[in-house]
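S.,

Sequence below, as promised.
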Amino acid sequence: MDNAATATATVIPTGDAHLQADTVIPTQPAGVVVFAHGSGSSRHSPRNRAVAQVLNRTGMATVLADLLTADEERRDAESRRLRFDITLLAERVLGIVDWLRTAPETRTLPIGLFGASTGAAAALVAAAARPDVVQAVVSRGGRPDLAGAALGDVQAPTLLLVGERDDVVLQLNAEAHAAMPGVAQLRVIPNAGHLFEEPGALDQVAGLAASWFDTYLREADQATRWPPSPA
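The prediction came back faster than expected:
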C-alpha cells in the first residue's frame, strides 16, 4: 500500500445495519471507489483487495465493506440466499454511498462502484438509484443481468470485465451490455476464468479498472457535478 495513504477500520451505518469496513484514503484522492462483494465474499476478498491496492496507487480512495452483518453471514452460509438478495445488497451499497456524501474526508469526492459477482448487480441498482452521485461502475465477473429493469436506468459509464473462459457469465454480460442505454464497454480478458486466477489476469482487471475510474472520476467537474451535501 502507498505510504501516503491512510488505512482505517470503521463501521458504516446504513439505516438497518452497521457494516464493518476498511477504508484507504490517499493524501490527495481523486475519487472514492466502493467495492460491492457478492456470492459469499467479504471485505477480506484477496482479489478485491488486490484491485483496491492498484486503485490506491493511482490516487483513488477505496472502501471495502461487508455488505452483510456477522449474523447475516452466518445465516447465508447455511441458506446461500442473502448473497442473491440484490435488493438488500443494493440498499447496503446505497447506505455506504450516502455515508460517503456526508463524511468529511469524502463528501466532495466523485464516487465509483466496483462490483464482483452478485455485487455487480447491487452496484448497478445503486448507480441507477443515485444517477447524480455515482459517476462510474466497473463489474468484475459480475451478474449485471440480476439488476433487472434497473439496467435501463444506469447513467454512469460502466465497464464490464469478463473472463474469456467464463462462458455463461460472458453471455449474460453481453446481453446486459446491449440493454444499457449509456456509456458501457464489455472487455473480455483472454484465457481467464470466472475468478481470474490465471497468471496476469487479475493484473489486467486492476489496470483496466484503474484506467476507467481515472477517466470518469479524476476528470469529473466537482464544481458542477458534485454539489456539497447540505449541512
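The beta strands are 6-13, 18-25, 31-36, 60-65, 111-116, 134-140, 158-163, 184-189.

Coffee later?
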